[in-house]
Each structure stands twice: as structure tokens, then as C-alpha cells.
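Section 5.1 Outputs to date
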Amino acid sequence: MSVITIARGSFSGGKMLAESLAQRLGYRCIDRDIIVERAAAGGVSQEALMEALVKPPHFWDRFRHEKYIYLTLIQAAITEEVSTGKVVYHGNAGHLLLRGAPHVLRARIIAPLEIRVGMVRDRLKLSRNEAVAYIEKVDNERRKWTSYLYGVDWEDPHLYDIVLNLEEIGVEEACEIMATVAKQKSFEFTAECAAAMADLALASRVRANLVLNASTSDLEMEVVALRGSVSIKGKVVDLEQMAEVERVARGTAGVTDLKLDKLAPMPLV
């Protein structure tokens, strides 16, 4: 009952592989659009959330807190979607949004430029030069995005458990390899793994509820959950806002105990 994330460049075959793998294993297959739709349920527009996933760093330099809000909602959505296992996610940095989640099989799919160019030309009806420019633009923006948000190079093979090149092997062969790896003990979705995934989902849910609440939406909190016990660190404006943080957190489904760790009003200047 693994959780599998597939990172891929545009038109590299990763989407086809994800769908084929999910069908083979009997898993759900989810993508960025599903995550954005779920995250938008709190009232934020899907367009704004999608921008948070694709806008280059210089855009978010001007809207740092908005970036925090959108990514908090997106992380909460993806952790909820994968919390029970048996899911394949393909799209933007799923393995990074699920940092801290155990036994996640992190895969990266690559393909030679000419294969990708052929797919772009067929799908988008572009010339070869236009297709190359499109691929380079998307890859460059994705590279900047992951570097800005997580301080990593999304092409670094150390971020993945398996990297597959579709130059010589087809999607079906790659699917067979992935299915075999997913069944290994290292990626078994044990009871302990399920509990840790539930902790991550609960912490993300608390953070999302705080950003959706008008009185606490300006805060950026560090939230950790362990078997229903939640710890929150950060700065608040005053005691009234601190009380609101406590109210929102305690009202979050799954919270059984709450610790406000160093949650003190910001000093006056």
C-alpha cells in the first residue's frame, strides 16, 4: 500500500507512467489539478493556488506571505490525499511537499530531448524550435521554483529512490520496474507508517485552518503533530490572537492535546 510520487519534466512520459502504474497496482492516481481543487475548498481561488505552483521566484518575492498561505493549503491537500496509502501522485514536487513522510517511493522520470520535443510538437502543434523553447522554459521555471522554496535542485538524483530514463525502455517496462520496487519492504505502508502519515496530515490541517481563519491568517506557524498531540511555535500580535490560535487548533479534527510552545506576542518597537 505504498505512496508513490513521480517527478517528471513536461512531456517526458511521467503522466502516462503514473496512470499505467496506478492501474497495475490498483492505486488511485492523482495530479496537481486534483490537489489544487481540494486545496481551494477553503475558499481560495484555484487560479491563485495554481499560480503558487508555477510562478517563478521573482514573483513571490513581492508576495511572500501569500506564498506561505497557498503552499500551506497545497501541502495540507496532498497529505490528506495520500494519508491512507495506495496512491500514485505525479506533478510538482510531491516528494518535497511530503518531506517527513516515511516509506514514500520517490521516482523521477527523464527522457531525451528529442522524445520530449516530438511529444510537444504532436500535442501542442508547435515547430521544433518552439517546442525546444517551451521545454527549456518550463524546466527552468521548475528548477528555480524548487530551489527557491526548498533550497534543492529538482534534478539532483539524491532526492529520489529511483530514476528511470525512457530512452530505451517503454512505459510498460518502466511500469513493471516501478511496481516491483513499490512492493519492496522499504516502501511497505505499515501501521507505523500510517500513523506517521496521519501526524503529518494533522499538522498540515492545523496550519491550513490557521491561514483560513481571518484572525490568524497573517501568521506563519511551525506545527508538529504526534498521535493527536499538537505543538505550535511562532509569533503572535497579542494575547487575543494567541487565544484565537488555540481556539482554531483545538477545533481542528484529530487534535487531542495542544501545546503552544514559545508562542508569545511580538515585542513592541
